[in-house]
Amino acid sequence: MRRAPSQLPLGLGLRDDATFSNFFPGANEPLVGRLLHQFDADGEPFLYLWGPPGVGRSHLLQAACHQASARDLRTLFLPLEELGHFPPLMLEDVERLDLLAIDDLERVVGRKRWEEALFHAFNRLRDSGKRLVIAADRPPRQLDVQLADLASRLTWGVTFHMGLPGDEERLGALQLRASLRGMQLPDEVARYILHRGPRQLGDLLRCLDVLDSASLSAQRKLTIPFVKNALGW
After folding, report:
1. What φ, ψ does residue 220 adopt, rounded to 5°?
2. How far apart are CA 88 and CA 37, in angstroms?
3. What is the CB-side half-sphere exposure of residue 140 using CA atoms within 13 A?
């Protein structure tokens, strides 16, 4: 179970399905490898990943927290899209954590109180030998950070660019999620869903929710006619 110091906000639950086992890495395999081994003796203390919405940034941050929690380590996931309008009190005592995962960094850039709190949190984590993962929609040098010391800190770690998945990566992700649900998804059916379904990978994967329920209810295998009817295409 994820644990956090009492001064930090609770209730920031991790999605149960945001794990490494159901993330299709594709071109992001080097990044996934770094995250998986971040707590090794030679692991990278600070990782920064960036890319547009829909590439899986939040998924990987939460997966890193799940993995650390499974090793009985203390973690905290901070989605700043949801929390950025609060004062940065949740960054107090972060050195008591083993891993801090900050999502949507761009949401608080340019705000003096947040930038100062992030700078001091970075230093305390570094001095305590702890781990930090940050995700944003652009690379560090393109963020309009006002505090020069924080801007410098953000370039210290290893930076990874997460690009939008191509068709083969989306296909791999679709079939991986289907197999984890115990669904038989033939190649031709998967490609039909890929080409007729939404472009955003998250929306595409949600089609499996409908198909899983429909196939169980009808006791039918997934075929193109069945998928077409179930999804209203």
Report:
1. -120, 145
2. 29
3. 20
What pLDDT score does 2 carry?
43
Distances (CA, A) of 214 to 196, 202, 217: 18, 19, 5
Q: Checking DSSP bridges between strand 46-50 and strand 99-103, what pairing results, if any?
A: unpaired
- Cα dist. 16→32, 44, 181, 192 in Å? 18, 25, 14, 28
Over residues 6-58, the pLDDT tens digits come to: 344 444 679 988 999 999 999 999 999 999 999 999 999 999 999 999 899 99
* Cα–Cα distance for residue pair 231/233, rounded to 1 Å: 6
- Residues spanned by the domain of 127: 26-161
pTM over 0.85: yes
Residue with tokens 């009817």: 229
Q: What is the pLDDT of residues 160-170, one digit of tens each?
A: 999 999 999 99
Q: Which amino acid is at 181?
A: R
- For residue 94, the model assigns a pLDDT of 94
Residue 56 DSSP code: S
Asked if 202 and 155 sit in the same domain, the reply is: no
Whether residues 130 and 82 share a domain: the answer is yes
Question: Would you state the structure tokens that stand for residue 148, as one six-digit string?
Answer: 């020069």
Q: Are residues 127 and 207 in the same domain?
A: no
110 — alpha (psi -120 to 50), left (phi > 0) or beta? left
